[in-house]
Structures are given as C-alpha cells and as structure tokens.
C-alpha cells in the first residue's frame, strides 16, 4: 500500500531571507562592479541630497561576496538597529498597556457603539463593518500620501490585529487597516516630501506640481485597494477557514480580547498622579512651543498643537478618570497618537522619537495602574521577549542590502537598465521606467534614497525622448509604492509581519495578486501622462 506523499514544509521566514542573501552574493560574482560619481544637491528647505552624475558611470574592481553572507547578518543588525530597537520598545510598551486590559475595553466599547447604529438604513445598506474598515484605511492612506507614514504603522499593528480578530476577520485584515492603507497612500503620494518632494526637486520641477492628476490617481488606487481588502474581509467573515493565516491566528484568538466593559476598575490615586504629571509636562511645553510649524507638502502652517493637546488631555483625562482607569489609559493612547502626528509633521520625528514616545506611554500606563517598578520592568521584558522574533528578522533582511552594496553592483544594475531603454517609443519608455523603478525597489526600498539614485538619470532621459519629467516622477512614484508591500528587503514590511505573526511566505501567497492588480492600474494611469495635456505636466 502506497503511503501518501508528505507535503514539503514551507521554509521559515528566516530561511527564506537567508536564501535571498545567498542569491545576492551569487549576483556579485556575475555582475561586474561599477559606480557613478556623486555630488551634493541643495533641494531647499534645509534638505541636501547626494545624487549621481548620470554621465559618470565607470567600471570598478568587482567585490564578489563569499563568507560575507554570514557577516552580512551582523552588519544588517547594525544597519537596521534603529528599526530593531523601535520594535522592541513598542512591544515592551504595549505589553504593559495590554496587561491593563484597556485595549480590550476600547475594542468592545467600539464594537458596541457600532452595533447601536447599524440599524440605520444607510449603514445597513453599506454594512457597518465595511464603513469602519474603509474609514480606517482611508485615514492611514491620507497619512501615507501627506507625510509618508511607513515605519509608524508598526506601532499600530498591535492595536488593529486584535480589533480585526474581534470583528471576525484575520490578522491580514488587521495589517491591511494600517500598513496596507498607508502603503496605498504612499503610492498615491500627494504631498509626501520624502518621495514626490525629493523626486521633483531633483528633476527641476516645482514642488508638488501636478497634484491634480496625482489626486485622481490616489482616488483610483484607493478605490481598487480598499475594494480588494473588503472583498477578502467578507470572505473571511463568512468562513474563517478561507483565511490564509487561519492556523497562525490561533495565537491572536487565544489572546483575543475579552469583554471587560462591565467590569471597569475605578481610577486610583496613582492614576491621578500620572494625569497630573503628564498635564504639567504638556503645559510646560505649551509655554516653550506655543506655536508648532506643521509641514504639509511644500506649505507650512502655524498651529498651537501642544496647547491643544494640553487642553484636550485636561478635559478628556478628567472625564475618563471619573469613568474608569481603562478609559484613562485609552486617553493616554489617543494623546500618544496625536503627539506622533504632530511630531512627524512639525518636528521631523523619526523612529527614535516615536519609540521614546510609546515607551513613555507604557511607563505612564503602568504607573496609572499602580504597578510597582519591578512589575513594570517584568512586563516590559515580557513584551520584548514576545516580539523579539519580529525584530530579529528585520536585521536579517538588512543583510541583503549589505551584500549588494559591498558587492558594488547596484550602480551597475542601474546603468544597464538605463541603457536598455534607448530607442524605445515614448509610452514604452515610460512603462519601462516604471518596471525599472519597481524592480530596483526590491534592492533599495528607501524612497528618498532611490529618488536620489535614479531621478538624475531618469529625468535627463525623459528630455531625450520628449516625455514630461512629471511622467518620469509618476513612474518613480508608482514603482516606489506598490512593491513596498512585498519586497523582503523592506525592514518595515518584515517588522509588520513579525509583529502580526504572519509568515512571510503566506503573506506573499496572499499579497501577490493584490500587487499585480495595483501594478497594472499604475501602468494604465501612466498612459495619460504621455498622451494628454495634464495640468502641471
């Protein structure tokens, strides 16, 4: 009797990343070394970028990588240290907050509130859950389009995955709410200074010009993207076994939020001390920084962001403390998110400042719950342990970039691709630029670094073939955006999947048709940039 052939196990995410490191090392033996000369360009607003001279390519001695596939792991951890520490601090801080059950209370209060209005005809027709998912995704899409939200989404995974599970969906839907939503906005890039701002500045275009057509593109991308997610969410809601990650989500179902809204704990003395200390700090900084200058695209707006935070926290903090300790901690979370947005838009915060903000939130939540210093420390360490695997894989993925850089082949690849586009028609050339930017995004996931590397060449090439430089920027924009959701070299993607406990291979299985659809939409949206007179083009 023949035995049934056993299904080969799917390689672990760490194994897949290491295979990619080995493949990158093999490429360094096949592709010759090359380099462009670099020069400093002032983009205005205090921004300086190192860009390449498009006519300066020259071959250099190759540097094939061998044993470096092992040292690349160390170098990858060093290179991605900021993201790794960010993930660890976020994990520790949220573990303290989770111990309080405040997020459980918030989720079930939200779900109960949504049930109270689902009887309204319009909400019945559209589906209250569809409205909730769409609203959250659109919110994060705006964040991605306006100030390039990316790394920040890692912090929201711990909120939205449990929410999605509680609503009857899966962890992929939870990731889609913030990470995919922000990625759709990032691809639309209305006013993103890190992609559109730099790309247009290097191309000699007025900053954020052509926004009318980019707004149209952003709308189309979001309609298609959100519709895809809603369709998948409906399928999972109808039959949870249709989820790609049903087995992996056993972890989230096991720690699924419990309805504790009928068992609220009254705020004690320590909560009032926490409230008073934070309010005093906000009032102090309100005096120092009464006006914050928020950067939206190329425009600046003076806004009393910190005084407003102090006023809102004073009012809602008092109200929440009178209700329960859980609602006070949710108020802390709301303040943290508000300060994150203000910090990013007004003070150029990055992962260090954001991690510090969430770390302080975790400590404040622990104090409010009257936890001892030892218990806060133990909870923080438990959170760090729980999320360590997510942090480790970010360092491993960083090794891929290290190998390609040390192998001196990135500039050679750029040179070969730019040469291959000679003697093509206008539309074919623009679409090839799109393919090129999409491909190089796998090697260089940083949008600003890729703009500095490619736009000096692509903008000059567009002049030679008679194509608008705006079209070249659009090709960069789409090529930089969509594959951020699948490239294994993206520390943000790997971090998000690690926190959500979604294996990379299962994510790829789910996301590749989604990426293919968006890529085709991007190609179609490029056609009018060649044949139509568009404002700003």
| Poorly predicted parts | 1-5
Shape: globular
Mean pLDDT across all residues, rounded?
85
Instruction: Report strand %.
Output: 5-15%
Summarize the structure.
With 537 residues, the protein is mainly α.
Report what the structure shows.
It is a single chain. This protein is mainly alpha-helical. Among the domains are: 165 residues, no CATH class; 203 residues, no CATH class. 71% of the residues lie in helices and 5% in strands. It contains 22 helices and six strands. The strands form three sheets. A two-stranded antiparallel ribbon has the order 1-4. The protein has a two-stranded antiparallel ribbon with strand order 2-3. A two-stranded antiparallel sheet has the order 5-6. The N terminus is likely disordered.
List the main descriptive attributes of the protein structure presented here.
mainly alpha, two-stranded antiparallel ribbon, 71% helix
């Amino acid at each position: 009797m023949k035995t049934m052939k056993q299904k080969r196990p799917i390689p672990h995410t760490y194994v897949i990343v290491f295979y990619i490191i080995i493949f990158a090392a093999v490429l360094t033996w096949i592709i010759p070394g090359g380099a462009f000369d670099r020069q400093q360009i002032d983009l205005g607003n205090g921004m300086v970028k190192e860009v390449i001279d498009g006519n300066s390519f020259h071959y250099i001695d190759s540097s094939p990588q061998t044993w470096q596939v092992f040292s690349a792991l160390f170098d990858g951890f060093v290179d991605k240290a900021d993201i790794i520490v960010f993930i660890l601090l976020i994990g520790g801080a949220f573990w303290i907050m989770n111990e309080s059950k405040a997020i459980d209370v918030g989720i079930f209060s939200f779900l109960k509130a949504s049930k109270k209005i689902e009887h309204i005809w319009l909400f019945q027709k559209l589906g209250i859950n569809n409205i909730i998912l769409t609203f959250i995704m659109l919110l994060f899409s705006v964040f991605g389009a306006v100030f390039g939200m990316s790394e920040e989404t890692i912090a929201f995974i711990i909120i939205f995955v449990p929410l999605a599970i509680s609503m009857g969906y899966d962890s992929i839907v939870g990731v889609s709410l913030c990470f995919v939503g922000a990625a759709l906005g990032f691809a639309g890039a209305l006013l993103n200074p890190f992609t559109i701002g730099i790309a247009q500045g290097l191309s000699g275009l007025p900053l954020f010009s052509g926004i009318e057509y980019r707004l149209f593109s952003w709308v189309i991308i979001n309609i298609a993207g959100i519709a895809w997610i809603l369709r998948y969410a409906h399928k999972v809601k109808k039959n949870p076994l249709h989820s790609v990650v049903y087995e992996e989500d056993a972890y989230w179902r096991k720690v699924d939020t419990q309805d504790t809204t009928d068992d609220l704990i009254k705020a004690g003395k320590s909560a009032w001390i926490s409230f008073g200390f934070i309010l005093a700090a906000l009032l102090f900084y309100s005096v120092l920084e009464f006006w914050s200058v928020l950067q939206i695209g190329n425009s600046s707006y003076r806004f009393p962001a910190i005084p407003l935070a102090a006023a809102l926290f004073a009012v809602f903090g008092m109200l929440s403390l009178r209700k329960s300790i859980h609602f006070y901690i949710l108020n802390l979370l709301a303040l943290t998110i508000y300060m994150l947005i203000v910090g990013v838009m007004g003070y150029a915060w990055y992962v260090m400042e954001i991690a510090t903000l969430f770390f302080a939130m975790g400590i404040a939540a622990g104090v409010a719950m009257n936890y001892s210093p030892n218990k806060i420390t133990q909870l923080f360490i438990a959170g760090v342990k729980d999320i360590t695997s997510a942090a480790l894989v970010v360092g491993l993925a960083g090794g891929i970039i290290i190998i390609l850089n040390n192998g001196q082949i990135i500039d050679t690849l750029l040179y070969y691709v730019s040469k291959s586009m000679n003697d093509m028609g206008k539309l074919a050339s623009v679409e090839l630029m799109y393919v090129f930017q999409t491909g190089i995004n796998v090697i260089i996931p940083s949008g600003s670094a890729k703009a500095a590397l490619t736009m000096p060449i692509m903008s000059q090439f567009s002049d030679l073939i008679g194509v608008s430089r705006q079209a070249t920027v659009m090709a960069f924009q789409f090529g930089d955006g969509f594959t951020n959701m699948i490239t294994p070299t993206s520390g943000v993607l790997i971090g998000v999947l690690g926190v959500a406990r979604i294996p990379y291979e299962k994510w790829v299985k789910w996301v590749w048709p989604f990426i293919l659809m968006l890529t085709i939409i991007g190609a179609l949206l490029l056609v009018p940039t060649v044949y139509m007179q568009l404002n700003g083009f």
